[in-house]
From TrEMBL, chain A:
It is a multi-pass membrane protein. Pfam families: CcmF_C, Cytochrom_C_asm. PANTHER family: CYTOCHROME C ASSEMBLY PROTEIN-RELATED (PTHR43653), CYTOCHROME C-TYPE BIOGENESIS PROTEIN CCMF (PTHR43653:SF1). This is Heme lyase CcmF/NrfE family subunit. It comes from Novosphingobium aquae. Residues 314-624 form the Cytochrome c-type biogenesis protein CcmF C-terminal domain.
TrEMBL record, chain B:
It is a single-pass type II membrane protein. This is Cytochrome c-type biogenesis protein CcmE. Residues 1-11 are cytoplasmic. NCBIfam families: PRK13254.1-1, PRK13254.1-5. It comes from the Bacteria.
Amino acid sequence: MTAESGLAALWLAAALAALQLFAGGMALTRKGEAMGGVVRPVAVVQGVLGLASFAALLIVFAQTDLSVKLVYANSHSAKPMMFKIAGAWGNHEGSMLLWVTVMGLAGAVVALVERRLPERTMLATLAGQAFVSLGFYVFLLFASNPFTRMVPEAEGKGLNPLLQDPGLAFHPPTLYIGYVGLSIAFSFAIGALITREVSPAFARAMRPWVLAAWIFLTLGITAGSYWAYYELGWGGWWFWDPVENASLMPWLAATALLHSCSVLASRNALRAWTVMLGVVAFSMSMVGTFLVRSGILTSVHAFAVDPKRGAFILVLLAIYIGGALLLFGLRASTVSEGERFSVVSRESALVFNNVMLSCILGIVLVGTLYPLLAESLGQQVSIGPPYFNPFTAIFVVPMLIVMAVGPLLRWRRDSFGRVRKALIIPLLLGLAGLVVAIVLAPSHVLPIIGLALAPAIGIASLLPLRARKLRQVKLPLWGMVFAHFGIAVSLFGMASDSAFTTEKLVAVNVGDKVAVGPWEIELKAIDPVAGPNWTAIEAGLQASYNGSAPILLHPQSRSFWTPPQQTNESALVTRWNGQLYAVLGEEAEDGRWQLRLWWKPFVPMIWFGGILVALGGLLALIGRVASDLRRISARGKIAYRRQRQGR
Amino acid sequence: MTAALKPKHQRLVLVVLAMVALIGAALLAIWGLRSNASYFYLPADIAAKPPTPDQAVRLGGMVETGSYKREADGVTIAFVVGDTKARVPVRFRGIVPDLFKEGSGVVAEGKLGEDGTFVADNLLAKHDEKYVPREMKAMTEAQARKTVEETK
């Protein structure tokens, strides 16, 4: 029954989305204004129904109800409970249900709390949200029903072992909230275009939603990168895999949107550009979904290869992106020009940042889509780091330099002379970093640039706090400082990993010792071990850092039996100055065991920096929401006082 | 963009600059793709038109039965990738993917050495039904089945 209830809730939610679109659309005409009243309640109920449907899916997975086809195909009664539940979205249908659930909930929250904008704009926005949701409801109901029943089988097929990891429980929902949260920005942009209301108030209303989505995207990308790092056992943290790019592209667009929002909110400039980024950001989310979920790419993320589904998503994509861009093209000229600003000003720096982010987005997008295009022309190519690393760096480096200077500039008009003094320290640090990097790692060009830039922008990102009383600094400014500092920290980790990693690949007997970087590692034992749905060969390694007290590591080579597959479980030792990474390979014919060892100086800084960036976003979000709440309550008090005086 | 510029002109200047940057990025991307794309080769393609030694390519085919050897260091392996028309010797130093075995498909990423040996720096093997390298799907259906039949 649970499955049927879930399906019923899904149908109802789809019907309500249609009603929301219809009522919202009618309310914009003169005749149908009375319809406006139902839009917000319908949006809320639609969100709740979506959630109910997703809850039903979680229940059938938790119970391992093998009469549901999806459970049979992706679960197994012997799986730990955590992976049973995570398995609900570790497949195509479930993840698409999660997508529409998040979308419905986001719309419901907007309908409940967002009252700053003119009501007509809000109705158009909610109608836009319903329009997008509706397409995905139809996709779920007709092409990817998660609740399809079947004749019950005795046992399920199990979940891809690579996905049986705590990272899975956290990574996809986080990314999805980020992806789909951007739909709010998309709908706001549509609403503003339809009613021609592009104003600083529009940017202020949109900003918290973009910030929230961006925080989740940042965390999702960070978590995904770490997951790939320790789970795949290749020692890398970013592979420019199309699926990774699919999450990076919305992040780049959302980052640009966030910054242009702040120009529009504070200075009433970049009006049309901000609207366009609102459209582009969610379009990138949809392109990402198409790449990941259509089966056009094969990777651990592409669950089902079904051309019908790919074509379906492609049509949705064409309708939404094409439609929104067409609307933008028709209406952009009616969005009036914003305020002026001079070449040296905060606005200019932010414009530069936006253009660079767009260029990076373009480079990544072209590199990601090119293999698909080439394949359709009959040639198979793959595009990897030799393309992505240098070509994104061309735009990343100037962007980071401007990121260091921009926050020091004043709005409207400024001169470099005023900030020159403050920048001396970062400049000297950068030069020092450059010299040190050239001496230590002369052959790596990009890491050298990174090692020089990281300390410079790290210090420069703190400069906006200078000559201020720290207790009086507002949260959004703290947020910016944290986020920019996090970028510097992350950059340092990336550059240090590329420049200073040492690697050893050896075949050893028990009792043999291997040196890698400052570590000495001894293979103590090889033992069989067993888990709930796997068995493994486990190496007992004793690692000692520069002769200090030994630490034990246990990398495993695991064999899962549902489905039968092997994975390498790496073992890590984290120190403040880096990570030791060990992978156990196979047994050679002469009885020696393969070991792959890396010493990666400062590599954890990559993800630590990512967390700092997200934390910065959170601080800014809290600051913005708190000041909005204060304004609302102040307005309420004034209204109340007026009312009493009136009496 | 001095203060004398009207808002309309400033917008025009900004739009033009942004377009120039984006078109520049697109041209750069196209140029970069041409010189950095890694093409997919079957053994027959390697025999017909070998890639230059500095060109990163992907080689896909079946691991020939009986060709797999491990060198004395315990971590370097050598094998032959073949299709019905040609054979290419491959060397790889690293941990072999779990489902890599003789008589089964593989995609090797690397470069073709001067001596005709393909030096792989990464191997992709068929993982399970759910995860097959993209090139291998077409291959396993078209050539591989035949190859498997012949090498059985």
